From TrEMBL:
Protein name per Swiss-Prot or TrEMBL: beta-galactosidase
Sorted UniProt keywords: Glycosidase, Hydrolase, Metal-binding, Signal, Zinc
Top-level taxon in the UniProt lineage: Bacteria
Glycoside hydrolase family 42 N-terminal domain sequence ranges: 45-404
Enzyme nomenclature, EC number: 3.2.1.23
Length: 687
């Protein structure tokens, strides 16, 4: 029987499973797994690319000799397990699992749900992606699968069920991963997709009248008279903001539904093994709302870690950890880059940087260099001629150092007192497609959320302070002393409610310009701004002006910087903390309002380090937030069980002032007064 609705697909897939508790096995529920004092270095392995048993045996021995502990494999190989529908072949994988166990290596087994096999696309055309112009696309690259298709989901659940039952008791099995890089891929425009979208809208809005209101269809003669008139908005524009946002929400939920189906299989067959999946919630083509839903399918935050700069790398890894009291897994990890062959020492530096951020594992992508396919000429730890490259030696060094550090308080579990608000909805609202937003408003919401988030994060990051990046509508904010809302143009109702309670109960919030301007439907509020929170912040701010460099003073520190547009703050109960000295009327730059037991601070400009840094510094003492070790630019540090780990992320030597004489656990040197870090150098100091 074929189902053409999402509800039918889910019913079919779940009917094959025993009733299961909906919530995921989170790390908090199993504090002994993998447990304090365990760090993991391993690799990603594609055994189906190798020439035979002898080469695989040689690979495994080299992994063991390098001190690796865990291997991630199975991903991207659906048709190697199921070469034809319903005909499974596990002979090679059985043998490899046995050899991994014999070598003392553990396996993260990825359910290879994407890409789907060619045989599936041939037999079940609903799995094909249809572009916005109605053209059916061949699966020419990875992730060109319509994962909302019922046949796809049915066959994926069967694959996952078959694999997890087969290896549930295998001693090498360590964890389960779902659909490599979930969140990447393409949205689809088939008639079946349109009908599924309509079904989603019916559940969300109930009536066409409610949909018309949510989508502001009275504008420019877009009123809908029936559900059948609904179309999927174009992914690259043009289209009204409201329906574009709902379309992206719909596709987000399709990704999440697939992850939930796979999580149900894991909980049925291997409940003692965690879900550690290589997710990509911020993928540009699609993405999904992980921070609002991760508890339904995540045990540990995991990601592909390919850093460009320390600030972005720190923010992204922090976002992947979300609100979990758990370490981060780098299921894919930079193997040298940038460039084709990499830079010696770079992976080691980033591995220790990961430890600062709370990482527990680094698994370089990839074990062997690729001869062909989409990543042809990608250089791994083993060169194209099957010789070990210098990279293998570097990761062997990382493994030895991690073996030392896991006895000295690593992985470090963070308990941040500061949170930065992030939301998938907001990312869509502030990154609309071409012509998706009027030219009058575009300069105002520019530079968009992510740059503001990075700029709000930067002073805290440079002060070596731990931060959480969370969806503030789906977390217990009482865990934090300070919540920062940087340019959240769309602040949903749940987040507004949580913020109100947080401040009333004694918390401190900082909101910057461009925040809370549109409602849950991406329409501007018809009330004073910030929407629904004017009493919390004790002001109204409905006007903004573009200006050149702005001047203000915060706690005696003079600031002159090009901060872009500023909002005109009209305080009611709020007090003015700082004013712009070079604009008419010396307009307020920062205000603070007492609300309940807490404080609500509003910044009239976009979040930028020049204004956020001195503001934070005025708050640290009153909030009990202690900056970390003092370090020069480009050097980051954290204290772990009385020892301090320093990482130099620059290509220059750096001198770090230290208190007295200390021993370098990694360098084996004795330092007095000054720690000298080589370019990309690291050390752990102890008295």
């Amino acid at each position: 029987m074929k189902f053409t609705t999402l509800a039918g697909a889910c019913a079919l897939a779940l009917a094959a499973l025993a009733p299961i508790v909906a919530s995921a096995q989170n790390a908090d529920d199993h504090p002994d797994w993998p447990g304090a004092g365990q760090l993991f270095v391993g690799t990603n392995y594609q055994p189906f690319d190798r020439s035979g048993h002898e080469q695989i045996e040689h690979d495994i021995q080299r992994m063991k000799d390098a001190g690796f502990k865990v291997v991630r494999m199975g991903d991207l190989a659906w048709d190697s397990f199921e070469p034809a529908e319903g005909k499974f072949d596990f002979r090679l994988f059985d043998w490899i699992m046995d050899r991994m166990h014999a070598a003392g290596l553990k396996v993260i087994m990825d359910i290879p749900g994407q890409p789907a096999p060619i045989w599936m696309h041939k037999k079940y055309p609903g799995v094909d992606v249809v572009d916005q112009h109605g053209a059916r696309l061949d699966p020419a690259e990875r992730y060109m699968d319509d994962t909302s298709d019922p046949d796809y989901r049915r066959l994926l659940v069967r694959l996952a069920d078959t694999m997890t039952r087969r290896y549930a008791k295998h001693p090498a099995l360590f964890a389960i991963g779902y659909n490599n890089e979930s969140g990447n891929g393409m949205v689809s425009y088939s008639e079946a997709d349109r009908q599924r979208f309509i079904g989603w809208l019916k559940r969300k809005y109930g009536t066409v009248a409610a949909l018309n209101k949510a989508w502001a269809t009275q504008r420019w003669s877009r009123r809908l008279d029936s559900w059948d008139e609904v179309r999927l908005p174009y992914i690259d524009g043009v289209g009204p903001y409201e329906r574009y946002l709902d379309m992206r929400r719909f596709w987000s939920e399709q990704t999440i539904d697939v992850l939930k189906l796979l999580e149900a299989v894991r909980k049925k067959n291997v409940p003692d093994k965690p879900a550690i999946s290589n997710l990509w919630d911020s993928a540009g083509r699609k993405g999904f709302d992980m921070l609002a839903t991760y508890r339904d399918y995540v045990s540990y935050g995991a990601m592909g870690f390919y850093p460009g700069d320390p600030l972005g790398a720190g923010f992204e890894s922090t976002m992947m950890r979300a609100g979990m009291n758990a370490p981060i897994w780098f299921n894919e990890f930079t193997a040298g880059g940038p460039g084709y062959y990499g830079t010696p020492g770079r992976s080691r530096m980033w591995a220790h940087f990961g430890l600062l951020m709370g990482a527990q594992a680094v698994l370089p992508w990839t074990w062997h260099s690729h001869h062909g396919g989409e990543e042809q000429a990608l250089f791994g730890l083993i060169d194209h001629d099957d010789r070990a490259s210098w990279k293998l030696d570097e990761f062997a060094t990382i493994a030895k150092e991690f073996a030392k550090l896991e006895k000295l308080g690593f992985p470090r579990l963070q308990q941040p007192k500061v949170a930065i608000a992030y939301a998938f909805d907001n990312m869509i609202a502030t990154n609309l497609p071409r012509e998706g937003i009027s030219n009058t408003v575009r300069p105002y919401i520019n530079p968009g959320y992510m740059r503001q988030a990075h700029d709000a994060y930067a002073p805290l990051f440079r002060d070596n302070i731990d931060v959480a990046v969370i969806h503030i509508g789906h977390e217990d904010l009482s865990r934090y002393k300070l919540v920062i809302v940087p340019g959240l143009y769309l602040l949903d109702a749940a987040s507004r409610t949580n913020l109100r309670k947080f401040v009333a109960d004694g918390g401190t919030v900082i909101m910057t310009a461009q925040s809370d301007k549109v409602d849950d439907h991406n329409q501007w509020f018809d009330t004073p701004l910030p929407g629904g929170l004017t009493d919390v912040f004790g002001l109204r701010t409905n006007a903004f002006y573009n200006a050149g460099p702005l001047q203000t003073t915060i706690a005696g520190e003079e600031i002159k910087a090009d901060l872009g547009a500023y909002e005109v703050l009209e305080p009611s109960t709020a007090d003015v903390l700082a004013r712009f000295s070079n604009v008419d009327g010396k307009a307020p730059a920062i205000t603070v309002n007492r609300f309940g037991k807490g404080r609500a601070i509003y910044v009239a400009t976009a979040a930028q380090p020049q204004i956020m840094k001195p503001l934070y510094h005025t708050l640290y003492a009153s909030l009990g937030i202690a900056p970390g070790p003092v370090t020069p630019d480009g050097v980051y540090a954290r204290v772990v069980d009385g020892r301090t780990l320093y990482v130099n992320t620059t290509s220059e030597p750096k001198d770090v002032a230290i208190d007295g004489a200390m021993d370098g656990v990694l360098s084996g040197k004795r330092w007095s007064g000054v720690l000298r870090l080589d370019p990309m150098g690291v050390d752990l100091l102890q008295k």
